[in-house]
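haha ok so turns out i had the wrong file open the whole time. this is the CORRECT one, sorry everyone. sequence first:
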Amino acid sequence: MSEEQTIERVPSGVPGLDLILRGGFPMGGIHILQGPPGTGKTILANQICYHHAVSGGRALYVTLLSETHARMLLHLGTMRFFDASRLSEQVSYISGFGVLEGEGLAGLVTLVRREIVAQQATIMILDGLVAAEDRAVSATEFKMFIQELQTQAGLHGCTVFLLATAKGQAMSPEHTMVDGVVELTDVRHESRTERGVFVNKLRGSDYLPGRHAFRITPKGLVVYPRIEAAFRVTTRPDEVRAGRLSTGVVGLDTMLGGGGLPEATVTGMLGPSGVGKTTMGLQFMAQSNATEPGLLFGFYETPPRLLHKAARLGLNLGEKVDRGEVEILWQPQSENVQDALAHRLLDAIACRGVKRLFLDGLGGFIEASIEPGRISRFFAVFANELRARGVTTLYTMETRDLFGPGLEMPVTGMSSLLENLIALRYVEYRSRSRRLLSVLKVRDSDFDANLREFVITDQGIVLEGNFEGAEEVLSGFARDRTSSRPTTPEET
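then structure:
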């Protein structure tokens, strides 16, 4: 049995954080929670306390700050994890400010020792480590103070958390002495900010390294483990599946090699605004059933608008939603967190065993990222997890130009992450705007690469014949092959 398996842990109770910590903080250790003012240290510490109390433990919260407990509890009262019924019996607050001022670090150690025993505390929070450091007459005395806290933690089986303000230096002396260091940050990117958490140290234990985004919500902190780290290894073995899933578009299934989209693959659908990408996605969703549940995850149109559009196309999507065969999740295009979006989607897939996924708007994920350099890695790992879960994914990517040959991928190297690629485009021909569809790629399968004209009717997308008899089609402005010049309105 490995050392990691034998370590007893104290779960934080913070969604996502325990995944990063591989189950929680090592029990009986001493851990620093640090970060600039306003990043959420006090909320995190109290969230740990109340979760510990719910699990039957007892928490002692010692403050070295001049702020009164009444003021702190007033702010905590807005958090759902706060439970006033647990005060005194399971969660106790005491002030060490006066003792520290009058008796120094030695007096503070005596207070902590006495209260741990009196309260039978199994975890203790010391809020305001900077005050203790400022009171120390030397660096040696401060180190001895940390060492004494470690002794008390081990002697009484109490896990200790020290709240500290980040100093900006790589490693403070106390960091070398403690068992764990968790850092909260607030990253600025142009006009927005995004909170993040780093585990800088966790002695004797593995953890997910790097920065992980989090939010402060009415429930407290919610952490979103970075997708590349959390799913570096897929949650289940990948399988090669031989099945096909119908797109719901007559004729397109044949173009894709017969039967539709290969099962458990990722398909990109490129095209300009208004060309019919969402319509095709709705038809794909309309093929969902009890054995192939569907999920529509979109950024642009609300569920009522999507259901209205589906009804006008003659699709019974509303009935499938009522039966639980399709779920529609809408995410407004506000300031989103990229990893939060991915976790919300994966949770919805796991909840219903989704087999069909229509992601309407890859741009929503791209715009949510504050680190453009990680987007291709993010999608590579994300797509691998979808495949491993047996999900057949169709997502839309908007191209910039309405007319013209350009089908520029929104992310460099994106085409290599897709098994299949479908392009929808406009072309001007004989003074009319026409819609064309082409299959550009189906991995490990034959496919029909002909350009097909299509129209959108009250029955959805209808493919017509091959678009023949014209040249320079991909320029966006087609002309008859028999003519040496573009057609004029009089000739149409």
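Residues 483-492 have pLDDT under 50 and may be disordered.
again sry for the mixup
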